Amino acid sequence: MVISGNLLFDRRTMIAAVLATGLALTGCGSSGEQSSGTNVAAANLDGSIEKPNLTFGFIKLTDMAPLAIAKEKGFFAEEGLNVSLQPQANWKVLLDGVIGGQLDAAHMLAGQPLAATIGYGTKADLIAPLSLDLNGNAITLSNKVWDMIKADLPKNADGKPKHPISASYLQPVVTSFKEQGKPFNMGMVFPVSTHNYELRYWLAAGGLKPGFYGAGDVTGVIDADVKLSVTPPPQMPATLEAGTIEGYCVGEPWNQAAVFKKIGVPVITDDQIWNDNPEKVFSLRKDFAEKYPATTAAMLRAIIKAQQWLDADNGANRPEAVKILSRPNYVGADEEVIAASMTGKFTFEPGDTRDAKGFNIFFDKFAGYPYYSDAVWYLTQMRRWGQISDDKSDQWYFDTAKAVYRPDLYLAAAKQLMKDGAIPEGSVPETDGFRSPQGGFIEGITYDGRKPNDYLTKFEIGLKSGDRVTASGVSES
Predict the structure, then answer these.
(1) Residue pair 128/403 in contact by the 8 Å Cβ criterion
(2) SS3 of residue 427 by DSSP
């Protein structure tokens, strides 16, 4: 972690000292919740933190790490915050908790605050002032399906399959299922999840139709070759083992869990579908940020410090992070399973472990900055698959992205940390909120967030301008 050699004894340093004393007196260990908000309230010396006691929600995935680290390494406490981290049963429960106020903020799917803002599924004004990470997901197939495609895959000199593996190798399998009168089912975690869009992207790039959403339809299986359904992340391996699905897209450690249980084989990681793709966000209600601006800024500063800790010194802190995440109050998976993807390696099957230095990125490559173009990408995928039923202008995409993604809040927090010497100079990008046109997609298409409608014309499978989805399929205008 980079810290200025002339670090002043400023307000946050004083807070940390007071909290350390208070926690020692109460006997609170690092793995438990702080006993009360008393110490934090006492440490809030200048009274600027309007709401020091907070509850954040998360799903048991390794990419919730910035929240766990911010708590366990004292970054929340340094900012005068007493944060309780509460695991949620599924993404819908988590979303409802934030909207209803039971949760002050949450580790959230990037598509959730966007969908809520446009009224898809539910209506609420949520914002995403920080991106939690890049990459971190994979697609896993059942052993049965893997055995059906493995012999046809191109091999490296060592005899192991070449990556990335195209979904085109699934086509004969899907055809075989269809001839037997059986659907080919796969799982993802939520209709507006990155996992849904990544799985659909991979299938479509391989010539398979993953289905469309229609008016009032939340299943998204209209005209589908492969039918996708929702399963909460921790339940993915058991659902695969039961034979309900033949594969899934999920975050870690639930792909590695399938490897360790010997029930499935990851065939592609999401950075091979879209290199350095944005994953989760830290999201809260817009009115919370407006009512509690100092609290919001403190939350962001703490999480940014945690993100830097996770990526510092080429991942030197990752083994400690693995130990923290393995606790039952966080991810609750075995250390070995979490470490299989969190420490610069990724195991595809026993005997096939490969370098994957960038599989989880939390701070490097400006991972925390909430780019408008990232939000626009999610919105294009909602339109591509029918969750947005009608054509929208480019300006609509920009306006929606800017209503939800809040780089202004991120920059204010990050620049204060740079000023204090808590993170290095140059930790924020020079940008107008849009990335330069991006390559790194599996089929070679370039994405320019400034041209969303032009981007949508590039796909062979997906809605085009004027298309609408009906119960019988896609109708053209």
Answers:
(1) no
(2) coil
Fold of the CATH domain 138-277: D-Maltodextrin-Binding Protein; domain 2 (3.40.190)
Q: Tally DSSP H helices, then E strands, for the chain.
A: 20, 14
Q: CA–CA distance from 377 to each of 136, 168, 394, 459 (Å)?
A: 18, 24, 12, 14
Q: Which residues pair with 285 in a beta bridge?
A: 126
Q: What is the largest CA-CA distance in the chain?
A: 72
| CATH 3.40.190.10 is held by the domain 11-135+279-420 | yes
Any idea what DSSP says for residue 264? E
With 0-12 CB in 10 A as exposed, 13-18 as middle and 19+ as buried, what is 40?
A: buried
Distances (CA, A) of 82 to 36, 330, 459: 8, 17, 47
Q: What are phi and psi of 74, to 5 degrees?
A: 85, 10
3-state SS of 100-149 is: HCCCCEEEECCHHHHHHHHCCCCCCCEEEEEECCECCEEEEEEHHHHHHH
**Residue 55 CA: distances (Å) to CA of 78, 101, 265:** 17, 10, 36
Is the confidence at residue 342, as pLDDT, over 60? Answer: yes
User: In whole angstroms, what is the distance from residue 256 CA to residue 359 CA?
Assistant: 13
For 409-426, the pLDDT digits (tens) are 999 999 999 999 999 999
pLDDT band at 14 (very low <50, low <70, confident <90, very high): very low
Taking a C-beta distance cutoff of 8 angstroms, is the pair 335, 321 a contact?
no
DSSP 355: E
Q: What is the pLDDT of residues 138-184, one digit of tens each?
A: 999 999 999 999 999 999 999 999 999 999 999 999 999 999 999 99
In DSSP notation, 10-21 reads: -HHHHHHHHHHH
Integer angstrom CA distances of residue 95 from 112, 124, 213, 328, 475: 7, 10, 21, 22, 33
Full-model pTM = 0.91
Question: Domain limits of the chain?
Answer: 11-135+279-420, 138-277
Q: Cα dist. 416→14, 207, 301, 304, 422 in Å?
A: 17, 48, 8, 11, 9
Residue with tokens 């990125």: 361
Question: Mean per-residue pLDDT for 119-123?
Answer: 95
| Coil, strand or helix at 359 | coil
Decide if 11-135+279-420 and 138-277 have a common fold.
yes
